[in-house]
Every structure is written in structure tokens, then in C-alpha cells.
Amino acid sequence: MAQPKTQIVVVGGGAGGLELVRRLGSRFGRKHHDIILVDRNLTHIWKPLLHEVAAGSLDANLDEVGYGGHAVRWGYRFFQGSLESIDRTAQTITTAPLIDADGREVIGRHTIRYDYLVVAIGGISNDFGVPGVREHAMFLEQRSQADQFRQRLLNACLRANHLHQQGDADARVRIAIVGGGATGVELAAELYNAAKALRHYGLEVFDESKLEVSLLEAGPRILPQLDEPLAETAKQELIALGVNVRDKTQVTRIDDGVVHTVDGTTIAADLIVWAAGVKGAEELATMSDLERNRLNQLVVRPTLQTTLDDRIYALGDCASCLLPGAERPVPPRAQTAHQMASQIFANLIRAQNGQPLKDFVYHDHGSLVSLSRFSTVGSLMGNLVGGRMFIEGRLARWAYQSLYRMHLIAIHGWLRGVAMIAVGHVNQIVRPRLKLH
User: Most buried pick, 159, 222, 279, 305, via CB within 10 A?
Assistant: First the structure.
């Protein structure tokens, strides 16, 4: 009787999960291994690009990766589904039924065996229990939400443009962004970039002067991941664009079209975006008995194995990894997911060879924040050079763009990745400046 294949299941096709299955498929192939990627979506888009998709500056159809075709190329299998539960005794996962837009079942509840399981389902925005957030605010956690925001943004701009043509000189598009981290800051700047371009797309009397963006941060300053001088530079750039930057402003409640703050101030808004904090996805609370922290993330050891099961690993925003000697867990960043994927890849090889696993070592390569085409600020290299190198302007913009190029190479390999980068440069020239549909 033929020996069953070693089955490695990766749940979640984000930056870390997709890179991991590509490397596993390339290393092992299909002869003795069955590498399976499970994701609720059919395509992948790099999460740090979602603010550009939301503002219409990026056409996700040109940059997304189809899991099916990618799987064929790299020797793994793709299964569309959402993780419902993990049976650690039977070493199986169960996916929830897949339901179409009409409410009909496409694929029933499904069970998949694993020898090794990697949970990489990412995280969701932390609403901190603030009333009204889930009901009245929008999020930028996945492409469908970015597409929905873009459509609502365009409708609001069209409405304001029409009112101006009818003689209402005070008509504005008011947007409140809660959260002064990278997502909130980059979205605020990208909105002004999009507004500048709308006059060339039939909105004759609409421009950035008709846009009112408020950026609300509960902490003492925006961009806490950057050193204070760089964060202050970014703040002044946003203010120069017209953004109302309000730090030390805690949101206490959100109603339909209104944000309430702790000092009693109310901010009216046509669109409200919540971009404050990260926590584990809701399904992590009920899918198994694996240890979780207060943010609903799976607690992992330095080897990135879960604390209760050596055969289950976790990476990215859904994982909480406190390394020896560290005061805080590894931060939830794209570079973290990339580094964790590399470590789990190495440890899966070692585990199958009967070798001891190695601990994850996090290398801080710095932080970069893009203010659309207006500016880019950040720190580069991090502890690789024993300190930080502060960069701004063209150098920072080049470094920021390089992050996405590295992501393309990680998920496509060098040859195809470089080709995709070249195609991207051509698309920047030939495709429309904004996606309005």
C-alpha cells in the first residue's frame, strides 16, 4: 500500500500564507506532499495597497493574484472556504459552507486532513468596544470593503459636484478616519490625490478644496511606530494638504454620519472609516481550544508553534509571539508576516527531518509611510545597521515601492516577479489615473 502523502494545510492566503505555500510547493512538489491553501476569497491583493484601492488610485484587477492559477504554477492545491473549526485529535479542519450571493450553497461543510497546519488568517480592526463602530463605520480589511468604500466615495463626490452646479457653494464631502496609524494616514493623503484628479473625469467643479478629511487619533501623536520627528513631519504634510489632524482625541460612540469624542465634540461625516488597532479574527474564538491572548490572537512559542499543539503553527496578525527578553509581542506588520513565513518554512522542513526547530528572530527593517505622491517618510534598515536611518522624499518613496516589489518576488519567484514589476511600470503609464467603476 502506498504511503499517504504528507499533508500541509495553510489557512489564509495573505502575504505570509501565500508566500509560504509557494515555497512549500516549490520545495516539495506533489509527489510525496499535498500542500493545500484554504482561503475564503479567490484572489489575493497585498493588504498595504487597500487604501489605494479605496481611493481609486489602484485598479485591484491588475494587481491581484488568482489563487487557482498560482496553485497550478507552484505545485499546491487551492480550496475556497472559511475556517470553521480545528479537531486537534483527528488532525482535521472543517470549513464552513460556501454560500453565493443568492443564499444558495455552493460547497457544503468540508473536512480536510492535515499533518501540519499553519493558521494565517490575518486580523481585523479592533473596535475596542466602542458603540456603533460595526454598524456605522467602514473598514479596509479586504478588497470588497475597499471597493465598497470607493463606490460610496465616488457617489459622495458626484453628489457634491451636482450641488455645486445647482448653486450650493458650501457642499462638501466629509470623511472621518479613526486611527492615526499607517492605514489612516496613507488613506487621508491618498484621498486628496484622488480628489485632485476627479476634475479630469467629468466632475467639472469638484476638486480637493471640496474635501474635508478629519484624522482622529486617541494617542498623543499619529504614527506611533515612527520616531517623533518623522511623525511630526507627516503630520505637517497632512495639515498642508488640508487634513484636520486631531491627536489625543478618543472616540466614544459612532452614530449614522456622526462621530462622538470624549470631550463632547461631534464630527459630522458622509463616510466614516475605522482604522484603529488590530486583533485576531472572530472565528479564532470558537474554532478550537488553542490558547489565545486578550486580543483574540493565537499564542505561539518562539518556534511559531502554538502552545498546545506542536503540529499547528500561526503567523501574521492572528499570532501573538513574545520572544525571549522582549517586553512586547512581535508587531503586526507585513514584514513580520514575511519573516514568520520564512521561519515556518524552515521549521517545517526540520520537523519532517526529525531535527530540532529553531526560534524565530525578528529583524526590524524600519517603517515607511507613503503620503501618496506628495511625500514619503520613514526609517530604513532598523537594527540591521545598529540603529535607524531616517529618510524622506525620493529615497523614501523608492524604498516604499521596493516593499511591494519584494512582495511580488516572494510570491511569484524571481523571474516572474521581475516580469510583474516591469508590467506594473507599463501600467502606470498606460492605465487611467483613477478607477471609477
Answer: 222
So what's the pLDDT on residue 383? 43
8 A C-beta contact, residue 321 and residue 332: no
What pLDDT is stored for residue 368 in this prediction?
72
CA 398 to chain centre: 21
Residue closest to 403 by CA, chosen among 365, 433, 375, 434: 365
Which residue from 183, 198, 190 is spatially nearest to 273, judged by alpha carbons?
183
Whole-angstrom distance, CA of residue 60 vs CA of residue 427: 12
What does the mean pLDDT of the chain come to? 88
If one counts every other C-beta atom within 10 angstroms of the C-beta of residue 232, the result is 15
Write the pLDDT tens digit of every residue in 39-96: 999 999 999 889 889 988 888 887 899 999 999 999 999 999 999 999 999 999 999 9
Q: Are 254 and 211 in contact (CB under 8 A)?
A: no
Q: What is the pLDDT of residues 301-317, one digit of tens each?
A: 999 999 999 999 999 99
CA distances from 176 to 234, 238, 345, 426 (A): 18, 14, 41, 34
Instruction: Dig out the grid coordinates for 145 from the structure.
Output: 470593503
Distant-in-sequence, close-in-space partners of 283: CB < 8 Å, separation ≥ 6:
82, 83, 84, 121
CB 14 within 8 A of CB 120: yes
385: confidence class by pLDDT, cuts 50, 70, 90: very low
Distance CA 185, CA 273 (A): 12
CA dist 323 → 120, 272, 392 (Å): 19, 36, 31
In the structure, how many helices (H) and strands (E) does the chain have?
10, 27
Alpha-carbon distance of 356 to 350, in angstroms, equals 7
Range with the largest mean pLDDT of 135-149, 187-201, 385-399: 135-149
Q: Which of 110, 115, 13 is nearest to 341 (CA)?
A: 13
Under DSSP, the state recorded for 48 is: G
